[in-house]
Predict the structure.
Amino acid sequence: MTSGFPELRVGELGVRLAETAAERDAAEALRYRVFYEEMGAHPSAEAKATRRDRDRFDAVADHLLVLDHADPDRPAVVGTYRLIRREAAAEAGGFYSADEYDLAPLLAQPGGLLELGRSCVDAAWRNRAAMQVMWQGIAAYVFHNHIDLMFGVASLHGTDPDALAPALSYLAEHHLAPPELRPRALPGRYVEMRRRPAGTVTPRQGLTLLPPLIKGYLRLGGFTGDGAVIDDQFNTVDVAIVVKTALVAEKYYRHYERQTDGAA
């Protein structure tokens, strides 16, 4: 894990890395509520007993928190993102996404590599402000740790690729990563994304079909990998996402630079 950066504040919302075991536990509890209770994922016996979404990657990851400071004495964890750098993945024996995708093209890239995952926001705070402060935190983390490439799996709700055919087809037709940055779904899990004839889904239509998180990646210039993967445990169809950090919106970097200049 890495050292944190100064907490960034927007009104009563703040964003920073988890600093204690209790804060990480709060993030894992939020993940359980969103993924299992709200989205219909299927918990293991341990997850059901502890009411925590937790795996072996959490111990090596950094956990980004969105905090609500309405009660300044007890800020609430209302959003989280799990961040795993190349060095941390080595401790865990690889990246989480390697269970679904061949990451060789990404691992061959020089520089800082960051896997994003387990993103969620409490339903009561699921608005533009919370998403903006979360992305400011990610940009600060990228800036602080000299990350050159971000990637991860993003999910569409449900496990029927035919029901998601317009969205998957749109992504494959308009946002496929260049070959040198294109992870491919593992042979035993590969699901064809091009499920509609080319030109059937217009860009405007395609964007309306996507969840906010995937839209956010695309607005940053993100790409998708080759093939989708069905995740029965989490009740989703997953797609690989790749983002060059040089394409991250400059306003977030300017915001972080102002924060660090002020601290200096």
Summary: The two ends are 24 Å apart (CA to CA). Residues 21-38 form the longest helix (18 residues). The chain has a mean pLDDT of 91.
